[in-house]
Amino acid sequence: MTGWTSQELNRVGTAEELEIAFLRGDGTLGRPRTIWVVPHEDGLYVRSVNGPTSAWFRGAQVRHQGHISAGGIDKDVTFADADPDLNDALDVAYRDKYRRYSTATLDRITSPEARSTTIQLVPRSTTS
User: What is the pTM of this model?
Assistant: First the structure.
């Protein structure tokens, strides 16, 4: 499994929003949803602001694969459970990157419910 290139990390990590779609059982992609993304070290992370009941998050938990698009980068990804020890650092990343939003909005993306849905986006090869 290869990681993100520095260009991909920069472009996706600095994008205001990310389009995410999960892979269905029949191999097609679900409807893309617009969410926030933050970079941390050599990884990219997303959360469900609506917690674990969000449709995109539930779909991501079924096959753990999907597709993202942000900053001019389109990539097939694996949805990996993020290390819970990163949650505090990711809270800081969310608050820093999205500081122009209200405190109430930032409190939702850093809530225990949202933190419980933290996913690391891992690029996957499209070759067989």
Answer: 0.93
